[in-house]
Amino acid sequence: MASDFIRDMIATDVETRKHDGKVCTRFPPEPNGYLHIGHAKSICLNFGVAKEFGGKCHLRMDDTNPATEDPEYVAAIQRDVKWLGFDWGENLFYASGYYDQLYAIAERLIRSERAYVCDLNEEQMSEYRGTLSEPGKNSPFRERSVEQNLDLFRRMRAGEFKEGSCVLRAKIDMASPNMKLRDPAIYRIKYAHHYRTGDAWCIYPLYDFAHCLSDPMEGITHSLCTMEFESARELYDWVIAAAEMPWVSRQTEFARLNLTYTVMSKRKLLELVEGKFVKGWDDPRMPTIAGLRRRGYTAEAIRAFCGRIGVAKNLSTVDLALLEFVVREDLNARSRRVLAVHKPLKVIVDNYPNQTEEFHAPYWPEDVPNEGSRSLPFSRELYIDADDFMETPPNDFYRLGPGREVRLRHAYVIKCERVAKNAQGEIVAIHCSYDPQTRGGVTPDGRKVPGTIQWVNVADALDVEVRLYDRLFVTERPGEARDFKEEMNPKSLMTVRMKVEPSLKNATIGDRFQFERLGFFIVDADSQPGSPVFNRTVSLKDSWAKQTSKSVQVSPRASKPKTEVKATVAVELPVEAQELMARHGISSEEARTMAAETHILVLFEGALASGGASKIAAALACNDVLGEVRARKLEGAPFSGKALAELSQLIGDGTLSSKQGKDVLGKMFDGEGGPKEIVKKLGLQQITDASTIEAMVDRVLAANADAAARFRAGNANVLGALVGLAMKESGGKANPKLVSDLLKKKLA
RNA sequence: UCGGGCGUCGUCUAACGGCAGGACAGGAGAUUUUGAUUCUCCUUAUCGAGGUUCGAAUCCUUGCGCCCGAACCA
Hints:
Structural class: alpha/beta
Number of domains: 4
Strand content: 15-25%
Helix content: 25-40%
Largest sheet: 7 strands, mixed
CATH architecture of the largest domain: 3-Layer(aba) Sandwich
Strand order of the largest sheet: 12-25-26-27-23-24-13
Distance between the termini: 44 Å
Radius of gyration: 36 Å
Number of helices: 24
CATH topology of the largest domain: Rossmann fold
Shape: flat
């Protein structure tokens, strides 16, 4: 499995023995709909990570809203996760299984004055909450006593109050810039029957309370969720801390999956199901796991897809073509090839005797290492596909046309002699001759027959129902310009009849085939014994169709309009920065940084006071110290201005190159002592001796003869790489400027 | 900008500060009893402007753009 930022983070946590080196993840769907391919990404990530690090992944039904949840969904979720190939073992949990504990924690929060019962109605509450840019104001019920809150909360539970009359709220901060922290509701009254707890409760916890507590209750180490929960993380941490949970789970967010030509929210999918735009959650056009399964996708293909799309934080919309690619790749290796004719056109082989012969036809092409074959009956009346005949074909059409030859797959080469038409002038049959020398499709005389087409014997043809599926939406991003339901593809399902070879009579539900030249198909559950129904999983790539439709095809996707280069408005330097600039003789950029980052200013002034070289110290402080502080999520540098002064002196007097200076800075952050100490410990005296450097440069050049050629060919970046190599050769001690100059001279 | 997140080929995703790589899509060709598969080759990217550095996609400043957040949903 390729790595990603989450796996990197977990690997670090395991190495540093966080949580005792254990890894426990969870997949927490709400049973209010079916799982879709977007969930598959999360499932593959959570279960995959657990497996890779020798940990566990729990399956947890996040069922805290009795109004929308249903046991049917619970069963479907388990079926789909299992089908995808993942096993939660004993670890199936329900948020509803924690209602007692959650209630107890809520009372604890009340006792520690971190929660209160609020009687504001929904409208008032939203008014009190303020807006994104204005702070909210405290609820008039915020200062109720512990006793009163406890009493009220218990009466909420006892069913003494109407639905909506009050809620339990966390007492955090109504002025927080993070709206999630403005005293969020954590319990509401709902007189609804819960599918698991029945009528035991009339108050239910909300997501922000239940979810973040379920995690530590189960010993979850890494709580992976999608980006829209990012601002909830602060609340997540607050609740765990406020509840004084003995276990702390860490939430990390990644980007959810979007697919072109697809809608991916449960709300929209539910709308499609309830509005009968599709035939249910498992309609093969749906991006649900159940739909994809019925469409003929394999779990392997879906997992491969999830592996290929990666995990990152960028908002991303994956091309549907990638999903089609992985399923073709998978199906190519596992589907038997059979012959089927979509639009039957009768061929009469006039010179063929009145008989039936059988051809031995392998199920697999040569490059798929599988065994098996069937026999194919052949006689003088056959069906071929109407698309494989043209009365006036262009030169590059190498199928059948008047006077032209074509190979019938596994059978004979035939030649079109004449076309039979009815009174309306429509073609009713093609009269052909066959070449008896070409039995099995070979041409002993060595002549080229470029076209090979599929066919079915009229007498034995099976007439079957086939469902041709296509993308559900016609636009890449349905719903972006108008209501997504107005952008549905009217041809997303075309139910047709096909003539297929007789061996398919006993195909059973779930069998997969490739209908040669047409696509991959699976036998649908609607099949009856002896009369299979096929779903097209995906068509074959068809470069002929692509070529012929080129003229009508939309122009290749326009490249993204580059953001217009606007005249850069010089941003005025704040007064404090101007003062600093004048006072310390530093650059405007540095002054700006120091004016904004007090700890950098303090550090720099400390360095100045200790006699540090001001230019170097300023650059170091603003560019490198600040970067390091941020990367390590610190408040400030863990060393004094004096240490910075010392370092800048070492650089200033040539003891250290600026590169070494930065390395030393890293060690200072690691707490390995002062600059001089580190230099001594590591023996970091910079190498400036010309002959020593030349020897190293020569060695690097000798070992990378091709690099020199590439540099001369115009790749200027090679120089950087060679400098890097020479630096490594010197153990980081060479003066990079000297190395670079020498290299330039030698390469010129 | 009230807070947060994110900007790398058309798309998705890599690159301890050291030759911007891979996959899909697109194009050209070879092989082919599936115009499939397979195999070769090619096109295309670091949001802009400054700064630090021998060297910046990466560090700093700044501008721009996109996304998320004001359910008693999850």
